[in-house]
Write a structure and sequence with these properties.
This protein is 17% helix and 35% strand. The chain has 173 residues and is of the alpha+beta class.
Length: 173
């Protein structure tokens, strides 16, 4: 049997299989790349056990350092979890340009009530958490929340201040 353009059905099927195989290979490469980036060296004892050395996506920072009154950070604005107890891409980063440690709390606000759903340990400069679980298992849904990013003096442990930013938590099942 021939198709309209003159190719046989088996040739057409082979082409479809080839395209599908290429898509699967590309997806596997993308998953491997994310896994390699997040599988960096663990942080020393006393820091968050989910934390890793280096920037989130393997970037290198060359430039001036912030002083202790400035806190730069990176965090995923929409964190998605397959279910309430699964790891999700929190993507929290303490960039290399900082000179202070940081920690992050995620707080879900429901009307007048607030619920702490995640709290990281300390992250030193030039470190990140790619994936982590919430401390409180949430039901499926979308949770408008905010993050409190707090800076700490690495020598004394003294809290230096905090920044708040909006985040969205999505639980699929």
């Amino acid at each position: 049997m021939k198709t309209v353009d003159g190719t046989s059905l088996s040739d057409f099927s082979r082409k479809i299989l080839l395209v599908v195989a290429i898509i699967i290979v590309l997806a596997a490469i993308a998953v491997s790349a994310v896994a390699m980036v997040s599988a960096g060296e663990k942080l020393p004892e006393g820091y968050d056990p989910a934390g890793r050395v280096g920037m989130l996506f393997g970037e290198k920072y060359v430039g001036e350092k912030n002083d202790a009154t400035v806190l730069s950070y990176r965090i995923n604005s929409t964190m998605e979890f397959n279910n309430g107890s699964a790891k999700g891409a929190v993507m929290i980063e303490n960039p290399a340009k900082n000179v202070i440690d940081l920690s992050v709390k995620l707080i879900y606000k429901n009307g007048e009530s607030e619920y702490l759903v995640y709290e990281s340990g300390l992250l030193p400069p030039n470190s990140h958490i790619m994936f982590d679980k919430l401390d409180t298992a949430l039901s499926a849904g979308e949770y408008t929340s905010y993050a409190v990013i707090t800076g700490f003096d690495p020598q004394t442990g003294e809290e230096l201040g905090n920044i708040k930013c909006d985040v969205n938590i999505v639980v699929n099942k």
